[in-house]
Specification:
heterodimer, A: 263 residues, mainly alpha, MetI-like fold, 12 helices, B: 366 residues, alpha+beta
Amino acid sequence: MKHNWLLFFPLLLLLTFLVLPVTAIFLRVLPQVGVWETLQQPLVTEALRLSFLTSLGSLFLALLCGTPIAYLLARYRFRGAALLDTLIDLPMVLPPTVAGVALLMAFGRRGVLGAWLDLIGVQLSFTTLAVVLAQSFVSIPFYIRAARAGFQSVDQELERVAYTLGHSPLSTFVRVTVPLAFPALLSGAVMAWARALGEFGATIMFAGNFLGRTQTMPLAIYTAMESDLTAALVLSAILIIVSFSVLFCVRMLLHRSPYGAYA
Amino acid sequence: MVPMLEIALHKHLDGFRLDVAFTAQNELVVLFGPSGAGKSLTLQAIAGTMRPDAGRIVIDGQTVYNSGQRLDLPPQMRRVGYVPQHYALFPHLTAAANIGFGLARLPRHEREQRVSEMVTLFGLQGLDHRRPRELSGGQQQRVALARALAVRPRLLLLDEPFAALDGSLREALREELVQVQTRTGITVVMVTHDLTDAFALGQRIVVYEAGRVIQQGTREEVFFHPATRHVAELVGTRNILSAVAEHTEGDILWVQWQGHHIAAPARPVAPGTPVDLCIRPTQVLIVRPDRLGERERVNLLSGTIVREQMHSETYTLQFRVDGSQAAADLEISLPGYVYHRLALEAEKRVTVELRQQALHVMPQKE
């Protein structure tokens, strides 16, 4: 019994530590009057819309660019692979504010590439696109890591057999590799999307905090804390509910799908 | 006749060197040898999933690889069926979808028909909606064979097809493979390190060792007339004796072994050179004492039975020649009824005859 207590105590501590703050938000939101009205404020609706669009946009970018890179890293050994690997992981450990500064220095009006873009009349910083870029910058590594592990787990012999059966590398990728790596790809995509949804530091540095243009939910929460606590609480509650349900659904889906059995 | 398959390969890989050449007709060819000898690598080269450093591969008159002409057809265009070790069935697809995987370009109707043909041919009725992990080892193997044959390849490559199966199932599937081969007339190249598989299936046997072909020929040639002591050991020859060639006399080569003069079929060997002599255990005959003088006999050796072992129908005896220092010199195999008629037993003294025509002399190289 003593052993049980030794295990139980840290668990209790952790649960309190995780559950208490989350519950606290709901404890504050639920008794509030005017939650419905708050939900209709532009600050809230615009933030919801922007977060929805930008997080999906950055997810799209992650899938588009991350998938080939992950496959490359999983299948080929080449010079500088370790370097590329480290580089890709870098945004995961960098403080997002550093990422924001870095993006500004590259794509800002006076940035390395931004200055040139400015000449042809394209401005990236402080636009909605900048939000997508900031989110992608910090979230792509999550997808690439998971996807690479997923691709690595697919037996190359299966791909070889598909070739001998007349399937091109692309067809093989679509019909064999992706379906088999699907659980990893899906969970990687969800992690990347969740990270993008919660992005704050890089966004506020690189895209600014403009209502309806760059003010995503985390930014709106930060802004509302100074003026309208109810709005901040409502947005926080929404983020918690959405994040929890998505994570939970994916977990259940992976567990129940036929893929799960050999993932 | 133009061979169905013609191969010459060189490949350097992480300190391993593959350097092989052989040909095959419309038959079942077994690449036999210890693990790591380069057999699977050869299959991959034929399938086109591994590129050799140099060489030439011709399938049915079509050159699919020629380093000299920088010709290297991709696996998609070689029309070769490839069944790797552990079958590599697509785990996310049903048995039927696995079998039809190579038929994507056929119209739906034709594809379904071809799949159902294969399902019938391999006795997989009722299993076509199962996924690979819901199939037994033998069923998985059948699906893999069906998948490879569904595209009507010119050549079928099998990598250790029976390694994952046990005893009786193994035997049944061996039989099935022979039937498929005879029915379709397809050339099969099969890799195995199992002697029984090689013996049971290989019409032609290519013996591999450390990245080289050390002998190729019909099953009888390889098993009964191994080229060297090394091949003899690889193919499990029981009695390999170190002897010295004496002289040739007509179609007889006299050799000396343990002080005995033994007559063997003539081989071009210079007198005085060391040779290896082998004889199958069934060809060492025990001579009945009352018949010793009946006709002129050669290759008679007297000695003692030192050990015996009984199998279901046969006995295996270990025999020591008089004056020998070894624990045993020869293994003798004989049917049970002979054993009983001769009233044999361990420690009994007997005279044996090495059948002259069954002796095989191998020159010692180097």
